[in-house]
Amino acid sequence: MPVPAIIIGGGPAGSAAAITLAKAGLKPRLVERHMAPPRGVCGGFLGWDGLAALDDLGIDPWALGARPISRFRLVTRGRTVTADLPATAAGISRKALDSALIDAAIAAGADVTRGRAARAVDPLARTVRLDDGEIIAANAIFLATGKHEMRGLARQFTHSSVGLRASLPPCPPRLDGLAGVVELHLFDHGYAGLLMQEDGSANLCLSVSSDRLSQAGGIAALLSDLMSEAPALSARMADIDPPHFEAVAGVPYGWRARRSEDGVFRIGDQSAVIASLAGDGIAIALTSGASAARAMIAGGSGAAPDWQRRMNRESRRPLGIAEMLRRGAAMPLPRRAMMELIRWVPRLGTRAAALTRIVRD
DSSP code of 166? Predict the structure, then answer.
């Protein structure tokens, strides 16, 4: 007998789908390749829309130690500008968030398998093959593999970036400088984001073009270049050992799933990949996972194609705006113009942050 739904991936999108389906009386099977939630390359910033999505799922991020964020700061070599966010956001590690979400999925009644990986999907037969050879048949497949590809349902794209993430150890000066702020350092062909996490460490995420990393000759050489190009970022990292970076290549910012097969729901980064500069990736994961699950509850597995088309339409403008900002921030002249505009009219930055949100049912 096929299971009602199989969910591939136990990150925010997959767990949100599992919680929603399980609470509706279905018993989805969730397969997560890691035994314990990894730290994740991207994430750490929870926008106000993400906080609302967590509340709908019955999870209180403040009880997990999330740190409130009310402003964003843009930093270049010669200028710093600060503006208010449209509403309160939060900083929390992916490890803490993903642990709470997958625990909630188990508590809701989902069948969770950890430490095993899905290797391939047959969308026509609606089957998933695991690493030990087990074949699982399902009425519906929820693809929640984040930025990683799945054989049988791989995304098609040409241009991509590289995502890097590290934790900087707690220290009072760093804590004082980042309290209540998400800080974005802009440089040629990329940017870095810094925010405080629940344990006092700072989450450092970098996004750079694949070409720039290749030209630098590796992560260590790239960091050396950035320390001279972004002195304020260098100051944040002063007096600490070189951090260990987790990396993911082939991040297709701006990509959207325009359609899907019958019975296959693409959620999270498998549905829409927004530039991390916009800070809405986790919210998209949470809201798309729950929304897709509700579509299946209401219309069965056949609701997938229509749901995917709606997700594509609703993500078009926010992703387009985020891509415009990302590309502009990566080039000297547009970057300088953007900094001047926000310097003189800070509410433009606040408005831009609002326009990159994807609001779903």
Answer: E
Residue-wise pLDDT for 295-310, tens only, equals 999 999 999 999 999 9
Best CATH choice for the domain 6-67+90-157+254-323 from the list 3.50.50.60, 3.30.565.10, 1.10.287.130, 3.40.50.410: 3.50.50.60
DSSP 235-255: HHTTTSPPPP-EEEEEE-TT-
Strand order in the sheet with 45-46: 45-46, 80-91, 67-75, 181-187, 190-196, 202-209, 161-168, 246-251
50 and 289 Cβ atoms separated by less than 8 Å: no
| Bridge partner list, 29 | 6, 111
3-state helix, strand, coil in the chain (%, to 5): 40, 25, 35
Kindly list the strands in the beta sheet with 6-8, ordered across the sheet, starting from the edge strand earlier in the chain: 111-114, 29-32, 6-8, 141-143, 264-266
Which helix (H) or strand (E) segment is 6 a member of? strand 6-8
Q: What is the CA radius of gyration of the chain?
A: 20
Please write the tens of the pLDDT for every residue from 160-184: 788 888 888 888 766 678 999 999 9
- Residue 301 has what DSSP assignment? G
Question: How far apart are alpha carbons 323 and 326 in whole angstroms?
Answer: 5
Lookup: tokens for 90: 């939060």
Indicate whether this model's pTM tops 0.90.
Answer: yes
Domain regions of the chain by residue span = 6-67+90-157+254-323
